[in-house]
Amino acid sequence: MSAPTLNSFRTGPDETGHFGLFGGRFVAETLMPLILELEAAYEAAKVDPGFASDMASYLAHYVGRPSPLYFAERLTEHCGGAKIYLKRDELNHTGAHKVNNVLGQILLARRMGKTRIIAETGAGQHGVATATLCARFGLQCIVYMGAVDVERQKPNVFRMKMLGAEVVPVQSGSKTLKDAMNEALRDWVTNVENTFYCIGTVAGPHPYPAMVRDFQCVIGREAREQMLEREGRLPNSLIAAIGGGSNAIGLFHPFLDDPGIEIYGVEAAGHGLSSGLHAASLTGGRPGVLHGNRTYLLMNDDGQITDAHSISAGLDYPGIGPEHSWLHDVGRVNYISATDEEALNAFQMMSRLEGIIPALEPAHAIAKAVEIAAKKPKDHLMIVNLCGRGDKDIFTVAEHLGGME
Ligand SMILES: *Cc1c(COP(=O)(O)O)cnc(C)c1O
């Protein structure tokens, strides 16, 4: 492979779905026709103005976009450095950024004439977003979920059922997200005719990582325009939390070619990187193949995928999107991590200073944003992606801090 010419960080993936050494299409031969059909349908939708105008209309009237770019004045004062702006994607319908992507995939499924939608979910957020749009468009919805997660995430299981979805508990392996993803892939091969597989992050075989990124880029495009309008210039830094990496790449991608903008992706360090109990695939893992693509993964010495740990169920994934692995290796994005405890502190700080209860996932980004902002001058403009609201996490936080009794 020839060395990439880095005059742009935004051109990937190549025609085989690779971002440098990462990504690709590691799937069973029986899946290939489905993947090629999906790729062709997506390529056609991308250049169809009708698809774009449908997206724009539902994003405005159903999801509630654009989400505000909000100057966090008291958080800024507290840090005493950079001016911190929050991209308020927690205000979207269903409470997080996931709906941006699911809307795109469901509109694509409709174009392809698919009537049965399958998805996998860990914390249940992607399952809820998928069940929501399936209800809206009258599509059958089946959500695979590890049996352990079904038990841990009861409110979201109930939501999905209310929305008319069937939730299938997966009993194999560690009974968590990676097993649910394997089961969904199996379903897809068996039900080729009518089924569309809706993936929740920038992972899976090509074209999913690029397609999901494209749907999430609405976050960064809006943030760019909003910052220019508010401050008359681009931001100096961007920060987002990383599970699989979809909210982060959605914010980052439209800014990747602007030199000088510092970009930080924050992984979950759980009990600390040295404890082994974390979800930091880039800072604590190594390259391997999982769920159809090559990327950094958490694995043991024998190459077995190990379980991720994070207080935040949405960051609890043993891999990361292949584009992030590439951006890490070429050095365009800085990948750092925050522990459970740091996230809990940031969760409380944001609630008290700004009157916004964040999800535990973006609380990881907030924890690092506060540290970095304190070291920057007052004219430094920072955007933190507030990708989800904290309603779903109050029981988890109460369990750690007390206060529900
Ligand atoms: C699912 C989820 C995440 C993690 O997924 P990414 O693909 O990394 O964005 C982060 N935050 C929230 C609120 C989520 O629901």
UniProtKB/TrEMBL annotation:
Pfam families: PALP (PF00291). The beta subunit is responsible for the synthesis of L-tryptophan from indole and L-serine. It comes from the Bacteria. Keywords: Amino-acid biosynthesis, Aromatic amino acid biosynthesis, Lyase, Pyridoxal phosphate, Tryptophan biosynthesis. Its EC number is 4.2.1.20. PANTHER family: TRYPTOPHAN SYNTHASE (PTHR48077:SF3), TRYPTOPHAN SYNTHASE-RELATED (PTHR48077). SUPFAM superfamilies: Tryptophan synthase beta subunit-like PLP-dependent enzymes. PROSITE patterns: TRP_SYNTHASE_BETA. It catalyses: (1S,2R)-1-C-(indol-3-yl)glycerol 3-phosphate + L-serine = D-glyceraldehyde 3-phosphate + L-tryptophan + H2O. Residues 64-387 form the Tryptophan synthase beta chain-like PALP domain. GO terms for molecular function: tryptophan synthase activity. Tetramer of two alpha and two beta chains. The gene is trpB. Pathway: Amino-acid biosynthesis; L-tryptophan biosynthesis; L-tryptophan from chorismate: step 5/5. Belongs to the TrpB family. It is an enzyme of class 4 (lyase). Its cofactor is pyridoxal 5'-phosphate. One of its GO terms (cellular component) is cytoplasm. This is Tryptophan synthase beta chain. The modification N6-(pyridoxal phosphate)lysine is found at K98.
